[in-house]
Amino acid sequence: MDARHGSDNVSLRRLADLAGLMKSRERVRVQAALDDFGRRFPQLFFAVYTGSSRAGGNIRQFGFWLLNRAAFEDVPVDRPNEAGILLVIDPEAKAASVTWGYQLDPYLTEEDSFDCLSRAHAYWLEGRFAEGTVRLVEQLRKILAKRAAQARRDPERFERKVAPPAKTGEIARRIREGHRQAAAGKSEVAR
């Protein structure tokens, strides 16, 4: 994605209406929904980007790239992009996508993003982008509140499904041990 969109960080605010889909008073309402989301989930943040996904690429890939490359000016530094959720609306492509950071992987599914986008779809078809976005944020807030309650009851269900990357030293140790074991096996066969 860096080859297509660039490898530099992009400076954005949580609400970046570059396509101009919302009027000033509508942006205030969306910003209030984003602020409310941040108060309810202080470890997370929600951001909205409206504009071209550039070069006609896949909007989901663009959202993933943007979430990884964006430096959100109005997000506290203790909330990394890995704990972020990004809604991308591309009016030229007539498409939208929800992307989330890897810290949310145990809590969100593709079905959840479909459910949230479905809540907004009818509003967006009528050109009511702010109202649709607010509905999407509200739906996602409900889903995350439900998952948080489930995680309190059954924390093992929500543990990361992918192991964290192994330490470099650990990888080297395993490789060396593997070579020693293979060499010992060959010397026993030679006897």
Explain what the structure shows:
With 191 residues, the chain is an alpha/beta fold. The chain has a single domain, classed as Diaminopimelate Epimerase, Chain A, domain 1 (Roll), CATH 3.10.310.50. The protein is 50% helix and 15% strand. It has six helices and six strands. The strands form two sheets. A four-stranded mixed β-sheet has the order 2-3-5-6. It has a two-stranded parallel ribbon with strand order 1-4. Strand 5 and strand 6 form a beta hairpin. The longest helix has 25 residues. It starts with a helix and ends with a helix. 28% of the residues are buried.
- List the helices and strands in order: HEEHEHEEEHHH
Overall domain count: 1
Assembly category: single chain
> DSSP strand (E) fraction?
5-15%
Which stretches are low in confidence, meaning pLDDT under 50 for 5 or more residues running?
A: 163-176
Category by helix and strand content: alpha/beta
Helix content: 40-55%
CATH topology: Diaminopimelate Epimerase, Chain A, domain 1
Strand order of the largest sheet: 2-3-5-6
| Average predicted confidence as pLDDT | 83
Per DSSP, the total helix count is 6
Rg? 22 Å
CATH architecture verdict = Roll
- What is the CATH class designation? Alpha Beta
Secondary structure: number of strands: 6
Largest sheet: 4 strands, mixed
Q: What is the global morphology? A: globular
